[in-house]
Design a protein that fits this description.
Length: 474
């Protein structure tokens, strides 16, 4: 073998060191022709180990470019939009609110019935001497002087005072939120409904985790806040370069088929008092234009699904229709981008994903005991327990009364993706994957005062063939 190598080199008047000869024999015998060509091209008289190492590097470059063509491109796209809110119904009035709550009540009652419970109405319960189930809205919970708990509850047929005497149920009462719809088991006796059990809508445990048989990856981001002085452009560009196979972890990047953006794409304008002082770009149209400039550089086969957040150009009340077209024209003209509402319900290759910006997380975390910004995933699991994305009605999250309750979780998804709190978190609640995709914005003055510590540049990615999430740092 060595002899053959030497003969070939001799033909071209090229010399070689003993070490380099060894190396060619061991590692590069198949590349001999290319090594010689390269040496001639560079006018090299002696081939050294160094030369081979450089050649090796070049070769690695070539191989990377060849091997890491985008793997994801080999698979057909499969997106189904199951729910995206479009229509804005006429102005809210009392009747609309009543309809809205009635719809929420009926939907949650259905969930209990599906589970095998056969509820009676409050008016029937009052006449009955049997133990029965009622589905009711709780509008007050308080402790009595004798340390028992009494709840004022109603349904469309009437109202009743529900009395909780058992200690273990008193604990459960702490989890009840005002205006929540729950199921009570009990018996009517002397003007009280004596409670023997409390059942929340909750999410049934999913037994089977779906996995795809193709190795594609979905990337979750949110809260880019382009336009803010605190937008971390360098981190964001690093992320974009990674997707363009210009960094480490090329193999993963080449598998990326979808990117979901969970709102707050830009910082907007006039979102908070004195917001302008925090803006680098004071025109929202320009903010979207600039973001498009960056995102349009993504590989052309990556599909980007976008919902708005509270900083985006659409109405504030939830459900929020998609970002208004005239503000984000470029996105609408480019078929790679799919502009949906907040929340939205989509399916990627049969994997159901509920995408919600997450504004109600502030209400949950700041109102309920036991929740804080460091445990974002726990707060997200409350959505499933209550089967509603904004369970604290009348708090900071404005809700528009549509003909039906769009924020209700009637079908349990495989994944819930949110953002808003600027902290990356991944968790699991009853086999539903909870993903919060963090931010690309540095801590703002307000967040400093609130002690909210963001985690910029931490991006959760999902291997869809394993249903496993890993977090990449940019
Ligand atoms: O919200 C990012 C996070 O910071 C979210 O948890 C709300 C909180 N935040 C930030 N600024 C404010 C003000 N001025 N009021 C109330 N809450 C705030 P983002 O939607 O990205 O601004
Ligand atoms: Fe945000
Ligand atoms: Zn937000």
């Amino acid at each position: 073998m060595k002899k053959h190598i030497l003969e070939e080199l001799l033909k071209h008047d090229i010399n070689i060191t003993p070490g380099a000869l060894e190396l060619i024999e061991k590692k590069y015998s198949n590349s001999l022709k290319r090594i010689i060509e390269e040496a001639i091209k560079r006018n090299i008289a002696i081939i050294t180990e160094d030369f081979l190492r450089n050649f090796d590097n070049n070769k690695v470059e070539v191989i990377i470019k060849e091997t890491y063509k985008r793997l994801a491109d080999e698979y057909e796209e499969e997106i189904e939009v199951k729910k995206s809110f479009k229509k804005i119904s006429s102005k809210a009035d009392v009747k609309k609110f009543l309809n809205y709550f009635r719809n929420r009540y009926e939907k949650i009652k259905e969930m209990f019935i599906k589970r095998g419970i056969k509820p009676v109405t409050i008016s029937q319960a009052i006449k009955s001497k049997e133990e029965v189930y009622i589905v009711c809205c709780v509008y007050d919970v308080r402790e009595t002087s004798s340390k028992n708990i009494v709840m004022d509850v109603d349904d469309p047929t009437g109202s009743v005072k529900a009395l909780v005497l058992k200690d273990e149920l008193k604990e459960v009462c702490k989890e009840i939120i005002r205006d929540e719809i729950i199921c009570l088991k009990g018996r009517y006796n002397k003007s009280f409904f004596i409670v023997s059990d409390i059942i929340f809508p909750d999410s049934p445990l999913k037994t089977k985790t779906k996995k795809l048989d193709i190795p594609i990856v979905t990337v979750f981001i949110s809260d880019i806040h382009l336009g803010s002085k605190k937008f971390l452009k360098e981190k964001f560009l690093k992320f974009i370069r990674w997707l363009n196979l210009e960094g480490n972890r090329k193999e993963i990047a080449s598998k990326v088929k979808y990117i979901i953006i969970g709102g707050d794409l830009v910082d907007g304008i006039g979102v908070y008092p004195n917001h302008e002082e925090e803006l680098e770009i004071k025109n929202i149209r320009r903010q979207y234009k600039e973001l498009y400039e960056i995102l349009s550089k993504l590989p052309k086969n990556i599909r980007v699904i976008i919902i708005p957040g509270n900083h985006d150009a659409t109405r504030q009340a939830e459900p929020q229709p998609p970002i208004i077209e005239e503000y984000a024209k470029e996105f609408y003209e480019d078929s790679r981008f799919l502009m949906l509402s907040n929340p939205s319900y989509i399916s990627l290759h049969g994997i159901d994903i509920l995408i919600y910006h997450g504004r109600s997380l502030d209400d949950i975390i700041t109102t309920l005991p036991g929740y804080d910004y460091k445990k974002v995933d726990k707060a997200m699991s409350l959505w499933l327990k209550k089967r509603h994305l904004s369970p604290l009605y009348g708090s900071r999250t404005p809700i528009a009364p549509e003909d039906y309750d769009f924020l209700l979780i009637d079908n349990i998804p495989d994944i819930i993706h949110a953002g808003h709190v600027h902290r990356t978190a991944v968790s699991d609640y009853k086999n539903v994957l909870l993903i919060n995709s963090g931010t690309f914005q540095e801590q703002t003055e307000f967040q400093k005062r609130m002690n909210i510590v963001p985690t910029p540049g931490l991006v959760p990615i999902l291997y869809m063939d394993e249903m496993r999430v890993s977090i990449l740092e940019f």
